[in-house]
Write the structure tokens for this entry.
Amino acid sequence: MIRSTAIWVSAACVVAAGTASVAHAVDAIYPVGVVTAKDGTVFIADLNLPGILKWDGDQVSVFYQAPKQFRKPLNRVRCLAIDPQGKLLAGCTAARNVFRVEPDAEPSAVASDPIEMPMSLAVSESGEIYVADLELRCIWKIPAGGKPEKFAEVPPPRGIFLDKTNRLWVVSQNADQVIRLSADGKAREPVVRGTPFAFPHNIVVDDQENAFVTDGYGHAVWKIAPGKAPEKFVHGAPLDNPVGIARQGDELLVVDPRAKSLFRIRADGTLTAVPLAQGK
């Protein structure tokens, strides 16, 4: 059952340093994935809770508390997405599947067959779900029937993003670190040649085809403008190990498990931190 236990009790205004000061009741936080719903609600995948947090702009609450038992749904939740109906999807490497998470119900498996290590999700406007499988080094496509189909074999994929023309952007640790797949998965092109990123995790792309990549070891979010080499968009403290990334309008949302924070990054690179753990 989904619980709505508040772990914030209040939120102060953002101060000049760009940090929201809050009080907490929970400090076992390790945020690795983030997604934003159409109504502005932000969902955060927490590997150590384990489960899913919800941020409505004023407070954070536990949206789903997963079991501590390994192999149970969302015990090791890694990634999130929203489907065209506004339903929340979550990939779990312990239960080896993608789950639909709805209020007042247990998570339901989306794929009829296991997916070994789902690290990132993308959903088309028609509802097809794409899954980056780090272990089997491929992208799966899950159609309405639920049986996964191999969409493309790729270097170990860590993050994926489906752009407005249904091209799939893939980020990995191998050269080339960002590639782009055609809508049918048969053609691919390098977007970033070589290995400029220290340890890339996830990727999003805006409507102007600027791509943004989180780099954990690089303590950075990189920007790749069309036809240009990657450059660091935001880097250094307070970023420590940025992992999950999502778009919210013209802004970026980034979660960092070592900083135990959610970061909001404006178009001009201004960063605001929302601490998610006691003492941060």
Remarks:
- Residues 1-25 have pLDDT under 50 and may be disordered.
- The first strand starts at residue 5 and ends at 6.
- The two ends are 29 Å apart (CA to CA).
